[in-house]
Give the backbone structure.
Amino acid sequence: MKKILLLLSLIMTFVTINAQTSNGESVTDGQFNKWSIEFGGGFNKPLKPMRYFTSTISPYVIDLGARYMFNNKFGLKADLGYNSFQGGKNSTDFNTKYYRANLQGVANLGRIMNFETWINNIGLLAHTGFGVAQFEDQNSAKKDRMVNFLAGVTAQIKLSNKFVLTGDVTAIFNANQRYTFDAGATNPNKGFSGQLFNGTVGLTYYLGQNEKHADWVILIDKDFLTLKDRVNNLEKMLIDTDKDGVADYLDLEPKTLSGLMVDSKGIAVDLNRNGVPDELEGYLAKTYGNKTDEDTPLSDSKSITKLINGGYVAVYFDFNKSTPTDTSTDGINFVLNYLRNNPSSTVEITGYSDEVGDTAYNEKLSDERANVVKNILLKANIAPSRISVVAAGEDTSVDKSSSVARKLVRRVTFKINQ
């Protein structure tokens, strides 16, 4: 008996602690149903005190209860029970009734023991608590009132998100029971001497608008979820789209051409600051140089077009200026040489500005930058019909708080059309 009382105390302590802390532990609070109505019926077996005896399996018992779950592991249950005891074969006939009302703590063993790791529609509940009971003998009108303690387990089979089939086995211990269960004699023991077992099969109906009940949800600890998000963010931050060895979150030039040497910020190395990456500049000079279209292989011409259209040849500008920097005019020369050697090609010049200042003003500035480059090509005798201008305005693809990043977007790019 002491062991049973200790078990009850432990379960009720767990219920109290979880009720107080669950609001801070779960990220799914309020996203599942907590109330349920439970009904069951079956057989009973009173063990003692008895003068006569019932059938081995004695009909019948009816249970009705309502349960509230604080979280997916612990809750409270209030229930009513009715037992009927009748004499078995070769026993003196008797007809007694037993009524009870109990408040119980409930532990969802299915979630505590992680049933979901191997099956999702089987559950197990443990319940225990105290209550009051009344005993009545239908023949002699004897009545008795007592207190009881009960403990049991309920197996669950989930039929749907609203209905669950249950099977329950419960042991009930009565204190201060004056009569035997068959009313054939008085009971000299006033402690928890009455022993009764119930076995029922029933249905549970879940109340609420949410999809699932607490019996079947898995709650995630906020600290665990925060840590998981941090790990996911770190994985995303370490992605290196252009494979230049600099993670995207540090890369100021996230689309560097594969194979080009970059600095610690992911920017292609341009030591002479002419707007063309050094390795690309060497490649262009070697494969294109001063050759004419006749002695330039078609594959080389296509490669150069791809590089120019990819933005690897550009003209850069100082803040609030429409005149190219002295070191970036080589980019114009590369495009000029290409147009001279490919007289059927046209070029689209696109001007950009950074995000500092008024948007309308920056759009005008981007147009001025593109037209300055256009006029340089016109002065080099490139036909106006071969040149078009686009004012793209502000480039928002970089962090505008970074002065280095803003230098990269104050530019003019080229698109060659065959």
The domain at 270-417 is CATH 3.30.1330.60 (60s Ribosomal Protein L30; Chain: A;). Residues 2-27, 287-299 have pLDDT under 50 and may be disordered. The longest strand covers residues 122-137.
